[in-house]
Amino acid sequence: MILITQLIYIIKGQEKVFDEFESIAIPTILNYNGRLLLRIRPTHENFIESNIDKPYEIHLVEFRTQQDFENFMKDEERKKFLHLKNQSIKEAILIQGTKL
Fold first, then answer.
1. Predicted model pTM
2. Residue 63's pLDDT is what?
3. Which is deepest, 9, 11, 28, 57, by most CB within 10 Å?
4. Long-range contacts of 63-70 (CB under 8 A, 24+ apart)
5. pLDDT for the residue numbered 99
6. What number of other Cβ atoms are within 10 A of residue 89's Cβ?
């Protein structure tokens, strides 16, 4: 089992475009032995301390194997909508780990 945490930074004014991309990408995770565990949109009050820019959303996703994750990233249907991701996301930080 691998875990993917993603900090997502949105281009101001592109929130609806981002939501449109997510409405396609998130259900696709299930096709690759994955599962969205958390999707958090934190507010300013949720941060106790921060030494980086505060993300618009935080996702925690699990995949059964590394290959499942790689197959998800290569999904042809998802790729058709990457222009929405590129239009709406300024930056994303992806952190990969395993459950201990």
1. 0.90
2. 97
3. 57
4. 63/1, 63/2, 63/4, 63/29, 63/32, 63/33, 63/34, 64/1, 64/33, 64/34, 65/2, 65/33, 66/2, 68/32, 68/33, 68/34, 69/2, 69/4, 69/32, 69/34
5. 84
6. 19
The pLDDT value recorded for residue 100 is 85
pLDDT tens for 23-62 read 999 999 999 999 999 999 999 999 999 999 999 999 999 9
With H, G, I as helix, E, B as strand and everything else as coil, classify residue 7: strand
> How many whole angstroms separate alpha carbon 88 and alpha carbon 85?
5
Q: Which residues pair with 7 in a beta bridge?
A: 58, 93
Count of all residues that appear for the chain in the document: 100
Q: Domain 2-98 has what CATH class?
A: alpha beta
Q: Is 25 helix (H, G, I), strand (E, B) or coil?
A: helix
Q: Check pLDDT > 90 for residue 8.
A: yes
DSSP state of 87: H
